[in-house]
Amino acid sequence: KARLACCDYNDGEEVEGTFCPTPSSVAVRVFEACSLIKGYHERHSDVVSAFPHAPEVADVFMHAPKEWMDAHGYTRSMGCWRLNQSLYGRRTAGGNFRDFFEKTVREVKNTDFDRCPEEPCLYRCKLTNVALLHHVDDEKTHGPDEIHDGVLDEIEKQLLTKRGERMVSGSKDQYLGRTKYRFTTKDSDEILTMAHSKHVRKIVSALGLENAKSSAVPGCKTDTKFTGSEDLLDEAQATLYRSCVGSAIFLADDRNEIKFATKKLSQKMAKPTKGAWARLKRLGRFLKGRPNLAR
Predict the structure, then answer these.
(1) b/e for 20-32, b at 16 or more Cβ within 10 A?
(2) Residue 116 to residue 288: CA distance in whole angstroms
(3) What are phi and psi of 224, to 5 degrees?
(4) Cβ atoms within 10 A of the Cβ of 202, count?
(5) DSSP letter string over the chain?
(6) N or C of the chain: less Cβ packing under 10 Å?
(7) What pLDDT is stored for residue 1 in this prediction?
(8) How far is CA 8 from the centre of its chain?
(9) How far apart (Å, rounded) are the C-alpha atoms in residues 118 and 27?
């Protein structure tokens, strides 16, 4: 896969238009709950080469790629390119695409999409009952089956999109590194979310816990009660600590049982101690014994 990108140099001045919100984990869960309660079937779509869809609002110039210049007998002294569309590498590209995405959604024919005031990535159409939740270029939609696909057809006239299959009972889907399973129980429909196990493997491997005994709990107060527990880690260990805690933070979004332990570990990110390292190894041993829990 190849992608044209530019290098946006930082001249020290503050740049406006870089903000690009993403949905909270609560918003994703509420969205899925609404799908189940109303009997709707979600679709996950991915915008292909998302950022170049959006116009570049500033005057930006760049040199052509060396490979292109070599192929066309072009040199830098002959001139440069002016960007008409946003490009990967620009700090404002995400914000530009987000504005373009909202404009596109609001202008879909025969709809009246409105953005949620509390959740800036959630849109709902009062006329069709179709709802849309987007994470930059990844979007989840649901609505009445007879209308849902027609709304997506209109959106795809403006956005080059790969549309996923409808999530029905017995199906699964990949969304933001997570696997979603939809199934039917005796009483209701359910959606099961499983975080990517690579984060567990990374933590266990980085801490050298492949052959360690698993822990029954993700954290314990006694882990930090030893002489020297407040001593700081050396730089190499501190870097490893931050990397592992970063993976744990991602996992905690889907695994409630490690949220508190991860929060305590994140409080030591700036200056990790030997006591915090012991806590991290406890969490690692807990994850080793339960690598694939889902909610």
Answers:
(1) beebeeebbeebb
(2) 40
(3) -105, 5
(4) 17
(5) ----B------SS--SS-------HHHHHHHHHHHHHHT---EEEEETT-GGGSBP-S--EEPPPHHHHHHHT--GGG--EE-SB--BT-TTHHHHHHHHHHHHHHT-TT--EEE-SS-TTEEEETTT--EEEEETTEEEEE--HHHHHHHHHHHTTTS-EEEPPP--TT-EEEETTEEEEEEE-SS-EEEEEEE-THHHHHHHHHTT-TTSPPPSSS--GGGG-STTTTSBPPHHHHHHHHHHHHHHHHHHTT-GGGHHHHHHHHTTSSS-BHHHHHHHHHHHHHHHH-TT---
(6) N
(7) 58
(8) 23
(9) 10
Q: In the chain, what is the greatest distance between 2 CA atoms, to the nearest angstrom?
A: 72
Location of structure tokens 């492949």: 210
Q: Does the reported pTM lie above 0.85?
A: no
Among 21-25, 130-134, 222-226, 254-258, the range of highest mean pLDDT: 130-134
Residue whose token pair is 């949905």: 23
Token pair 């080793």 is found at 288
Tens of pLDDT, residues 22-61: 999 899 999 999 999 999 999 999 999 999 999 998 888 8
Nearest Cα residue to 175 out of 287, 42, 53: 42
